Amino acid sequence: MTGGFTIRNIVSVVLLVALVLLPLYAEFAGNRFLLILFTRIIILAMAAVSLNLILGYGGMMSFGHAAYIGIGGYAVGMLAHEGIYSGFVQWPVALLASALFALVIGALSLRTRGVYFIMITMAFAQMAYYIVSGLARYGGDDGLTIYKRSQFVAPLELSNKVQFYYVCLALLYGSIYLVWRLVNSRFGMVIQGSRSNDMRMRAIGFPTYRYKLTCFVIAGTMCGLAGALLANHTDFVSPGILYWTRSGYLIIMVVLGGMATAVGPLFGAVALLLLEEALPYAIKLLGTPFVGEVAGRASEYWQIVMGPLLLLVVLFARGGIMGLLGKLRAKERS
Amino acid sequence: MTLFIEQCLNSFQFGLLLFLLAAGLTLVFGIMDLVNLAHGSLYMIGAYFAATFAVWTGSFVLGAVLALAATLVVGMAVEVIAMRRLYGRDHLDHVLGTYGLILFFDELVRVIWGPEGMSLQLPSWLNTSVQILPGIQYSAYRLAIIAVTMAVAGFLYVLVMRTRIGMLIRAGASNREMVGALGVNIKLLYTLVFGMGAALAGLAGLMQAPILTVQIGMGENILILAFVITVIGGIGSIRGALVAAIFVGFVDTLGRAFFPDLLRLMLSKDAASTAAPALSSMLIYLLMAVVLVVKPEGLFSTGQK
Description:
The structure holds two protein chains of two kinds.
Chain A: H1 7-29, H2 32-57, H3 66-81, H4 87-109, H5 114-133, E1 144-145, H6 161-183, H7 186-196, H8 198-203, H9 208-234, E2 236-237, H10 244-257, H11 264-291, H12 294-298, H13 303-316, H14 320-333
Antiparallel strand pairs in A: 1-2
Chain B: H1 2-32, H2 39-57, H3 60-81, H4 91-113, E1 129-133, E2 136-139, H5 140-162, H6 164-174, H7 176-181, H8 186-208, H9 218-233, H10 238-266, H11 269-294
Antiparallel strand pairs in B: 1-2
Helix pairs in contact in B: 1-5, 1-8, 1-9, 1-10, 2-3, 2-4, 2-8, 2-9, 3-8, 5-6, 9-10, 9-11, 10-11
């Protein structure tokens, strides 16, 4: 992130502050849905931030990132199912399990490059999907309802919607800060160097495999935490959250927001989820004058617009939202 | 023993079916350097077309032929409208763009055919069983699938290795610019190859349609298997795809059929019945992991990508 009062930085700060103030507005307007929607956005943004660390900065095209959400979520769900509600147990277990999984699949997958890497991470995540689908004790395909959210010490109560929102927000901002510090450290320089030319980095003496694996594990662990939050948010986990299309969903957030930017994934998450909410209404609103009532029914099929929209973003707005904001600044200067 | 032979034939049939999918995937990747996630959607569309056309025409075979032609056309249209713009870009762009196409196709199918699945009835002459060995009966339709896929594999071999088009395809795979410079219409060649890949996927889909239900998302599970196969076989290699597909077909089918019993011998009954389904679906991924540890570029890697 470059310093100074560029449009990009101002917009970023506005968003970061707006998210802090959002519960006040939601309380004032009596809009509970808004609070729940944004809690979800924040949790998924955290997953996207962690993916951005390896995808954007590290150039590791992981298509299996949803696996960590699932592992973190299932760690919470399974422990709760066994009667262990303490967050001091649940969350470390969630983190540890995701870290271990990342270590194993990272160690294997990082032996390969390019398309192989995409397909392998995807296949491993799919393997995790089949494993949790086969866990008959924990609901199998049907998923697992969590009756009690993670328990912490007295004043902190996750079932309080506003408190939970702020916990998620704090963890998101913590993650963004951590990633920002990481990529600007010596470690981050090595990671970014290996993205542009791995062979050169090795030639000047960096064991890039170890650096990349460490980075992969950090990202996986961070995403596992997002999974633990998501399980607490929905009070439910199912194999669906680690299906491979969910990994694609996270990649979309990162690219939509702008790869290799500190707050880009947050923008991506906000934009994508708001778009999902808004598209059905937009189809209804724009379609009704032309085709009448059919538009109302057509709004159900909003994904038919979403797909091509994605293709257009890939083709014409490669830098994502942060890229567009950056261009605004460039025009101003000239 | 009867069960074992039957399961072996099932494995072989499933493997050959997977080969059709993996061949299209690997062909498109080898020649256009394009990662096509929407390959599974073409498989799904082939199945839907077959189910619809079979009802319209009243004939299974006629419906299948029409569906094949229709999938070829859809594939070529997709190439001209969308894929063409993705060549030469980053692989991440391919993944995202074709992911968008999956969303589009899934929703399109929901709009046209509705959210419920369809089923495709077999004609009575295929819906019987044949005695293949004394005392062993096997489904005529599955035998027909084996025959058709083997014929297609043979056709592919002759097409790629023995014809002028095949020569251009191979040349295009090793050096695109040079083939273009020699005056070959690369754009048309690409459209053809993509259409062919689509037709192969569609063929796999329509042949699978009478065995499974035709439903939205049917292409996504099998796509992952096709990916595993291309990775094991080495991306871009059709021969590798064939070997890996049959291998995966055997591991997956036999694993599901016999692995639970095997586990029961080693573990207690309870533990085995909980662990078996998860473990048997893990088998092929473990297989892939082993292959990668030994040969990170796949078994039959062409060695350039």
